[in-house]
Design brief:
Blueprint lengths: L1 E5 L5 H14 L7 E5 L10 H14 L3 E3 L6 H11 L2 E3 L1 H12 L3 H15 L26 H36 L4 E6 L5 H9 L16 E7 L3 E7 L9 H6 L5 H4 L3 E7 L5 H14 L7 E6 L10 E4 L5 E5 L8 H13 L2 E8 L4 H10 L1 E7 L5 E8 L1 H5 L1 H10 L10 E4 L6 E5 L2
Parallel strand pairs: 1-2, 3-4, 5-7, 5-8, 8-9, 9-11
Antiparallel strand pairs: 6-7, 10-11, 12-14, 12-16, 13-14, 15-16
């Protein structure tokens, strides 16, 4: 394996991550070459001297593969392969290989294949020449297309086919999102650096039993589960693929439909490995990918996970200057702080709450069920003439997500709430009033 420090010292955390990536891909390390340069060498990336050193290391160790922890240009990759006489894979190619091994669903396999083909299309070399139009004369002319051109054409056709199939799957995903919108369920998406503990946290919150392991990119296929919140109704929790430093652009483009769940989420839970040595850099890497996919404006709560590995494993919630929860410290493996996290999520969706006293008719059973799912029911009693009288608290956030239900609430209010409410707003109808209270 090869890792260079460009313009500074080698980061030990980055070296550890390279070892984890190689192990995740199934490679067995037989040698490690480090060095430093101000700028990459345009021909070999590592420079002529380090290139000869690498060649000797490969020969002595009998290595069959060289992994370079940097992005190589197609020319640099080919030149290194000619020099060391074995296959060379850069960081992007290594991550793509891990994704290819881990993909399980039909959609995941299509996305990985699409990313691999886009990566390969820039690295085609002229492998054979017997079909090239290199000679003239009778019996010596080729068929008119070189093998390189044939490969490019076939890859282009395959990419077009994969895009069509993924477009159909994206249509199905969009239909599912519309159904959830009609069911009035907001989405909370788990995002974060790979191996930060997202799947473990997802299982702790939902008891879904999705695959979790102490390895990079254990989760590729998104999983959705319903999650009930205290006094704030229900949401859909989404477990998504983890991010990493220098995540290949081909993967971001191929997984764009999967990452749509993140872009359209009502809230992001940014899961962070609290004991990671490169914690701040990893936070910045995740924020960079979120900006790339258009999810940077989605509200976010940072969830510092694995606090059981810290010297002082104390669950807590930190608030920003406006008083809103910005960070929650938890341990998904032990369950410490999960109640604090659930309350923080519920507080986000409760926001400013509004209290109603309602008179529902016999045909309003659907609205009554919705109130039990999405509000805090203080009182619910049947009336002799049919229907119910209810005293409920509903978050103002519901008005933005579910305007049809909100209109139903306005139409069914029948008298002022008790005097312990903080504010009373006069309505056009003197018999109707609304009370508000802080979340």
């Amino acid at each position: 394996m090869v890792q260079l420090a460009l313009g500074g010292p080698i980061d030990e955390g980055a070296s550890g991550e390279l070892h984890l990536l190689a192990r995740a891909a199934g490679a067995i390390e037989v040698g490690f070459l480090t060095g430093s340069r101000d700028t990459p060498d345009p021909r070999l990336f590592v420079g002529a001297g380090k290139g000869e050193e690498l060649k000797a290391l490969v020969a002595d160790a009998g290595a069959e593969l060289v992994i370079v922890d940097h992005a190589l240009s197609p020319a640099q990759e080919r030149n290194l392969e000619r020099l060391v006489q074995c296959r060379v894979v850069d960081r992007a190619g290594l991550i793509l290989d891990i994704f290819a091994q881990r993909a399980r669903s039909f959609e995941g396999k299509l996305q990985v294949e699409l990313a691999q083909l886009r990566h390969l299309s820039t690295r085609l070399v002229r492998g054979w020449t017997h079909l090239e139009r290199q000679k003239g004369g009778i019996g010596l002319r080729g068929p008119g297309e070189t093998q390189l051109e044939t490969d490019r054409r076939l890859i282009g056709k395959r990419i077009a086919l994969l895009n069509k199939r993924l477009a159909r799957i994206e249509g199905q995903r969009a239909q599912g999102r519309r159904a959830r919108h009609r069911a009035e369920l907001p989405t909370v998406s788990l995002v974060g650096y790979t191996n930060a503990g997202k799947s473990t946290l997802f299982n702790r919150l939902t008891a879904a039993g999705v695959f979790q392991a102490d390895q990079l990119f254990a989760t590729l296929d998104p999983t959705l589960r319903r999650l009930s919140l205290p006094e704030a109704g229900a949401v859909v929790l989404a477990d998504t693929v983890g991010f990493i430093n220098q995540l290949p652009h081909e993967l971001v483009a191929a997984f764009r439909s999967t990452l749509q769940e993140t872009r359209e989420a009502a809230l992001l839970l940014h899961v962070i490995d609290a004991q990671a040595s490169m914690r701040d850099r990893r936070i910045a890497d995740v924020d960079e990918v979120l900006a790339e996919i258009g999810a940077h404006a989605v509200p976010q709560i940072q969830v510092f996970n694995k606090i059981d590995l810290l010297a002082e494993p104390t669950p807590r919630a930190d608030r920003d200057a406006s008083g809103r929860v910005s960070r929650v410290w938890v341990s998904a493996s032990t369950g410490a702080g999960i109640d604090v996290l659930l309350e923080a999520i519920a507080e986000h969706f409760r926001g400013d709450r509004r209290r109603y006293q309602l008179r529902l008719g016999p045909a309003d059973g659907g609205l009554r069920a919705w109130l039990f799912d999405n509000g805090q029911v203080l009182d619910d009693r049947p009336v002799d003439t049919g229907g119910w009288e209810m005293d409920v608290i509903v978050a103002d956030a519901q008005q933005r997500h579910w305007p049809s239900r909100w209109e139903s609430l306005q139409a069914r209010r029948w008298h002022a709430a008790p005097s312990d409410a903080t504010t009373v707003k006069a309505c056009a109808d003197a018999s109707v009033s609304t009370t508000e209270e802080s979340a």
